[in-house]
Request: fold
Amino acid sequence: MIRTVLGDISKDELGFTLAHEHLILDLDWVRKDGVSFIQDVNEVIPEIAMAQKQGIEAVFEVSTIDMKRDVKKLKEISERTGLKIVCSTGYYLAEYHPESLNEATPEEIAEVYIKELTEGIDGTDIRAGLIAEIASSPDEFVGNEKKILEAAAIASVKTSFAVSTHTGRPNAAETVEILLKGGVDPDKIIIGHQDLIDDHDYHLSLLRYGVNIAFDTCGKVAYMPDETRAMNALKLVEAGYEDHLLLSNDISRRTYFTSFGKQGYLAVMGSVVPLMREYGISEETIRKFLKDNPARIVNNSRI
Ligand SMILES: [Zn+2]
Reply:
């Protein structure tokens, strides 16, 4: 079964899924740029409705405890739109971490994750269905970042829920190795933000561990053209890895919304998928990226 904010559903019910999104979050308390937040349910819902018109049926909402995740708002969004939402437990980059992590052991942090996966979050009975987005800083692991990852491994092994990460190239192999050393099933690992690295051989080096990677910043063309994302996806399909790729937009501030003239949650279906078709990727394979792969990875045979 797959654990959503409205309860557990069967794997077949999930549907077309964006695998790394934020519907409600606050990064502004660290970034202080005045735009890095999404807080208003009424502002998010029309953006979601447009993605649903494109065929999107579900999201993995990867906002962490320290991104000021708000599961009550996520539940309201799911009830009002019909979007299936898998919410997350986890911690983000070091500068967001609460001081309490300094003294905590990986086992103690894992207890926090496990409670949120199995009992409830913030005094509700809403439970997480994913351990995400477990982050590391761009160049190296900083502060407690290794500890939150080791904790993710412990929680995943104990509960069989998947782990999704925020990872740059310098830490990617070590991230995978820490999780595998901790005993995590490689198919329960999603290494995020890998479309920001235009290097097919590097992508293969990660996939050879048996893990999954996410091309989850679709539409952020200031960082990488969508043509490159689609072309690198094609190369992975040709190399036989179509069962290990996921797609998303990673909208982390309201100024990415269509109401600000941007693509919001629409870039995967509106920009990258059409390019994939143009480059010859089949409908069946696109359905794997958006439906079969996400459902298989977060499906938990123990619930
Ligand atoms: Zn993110």
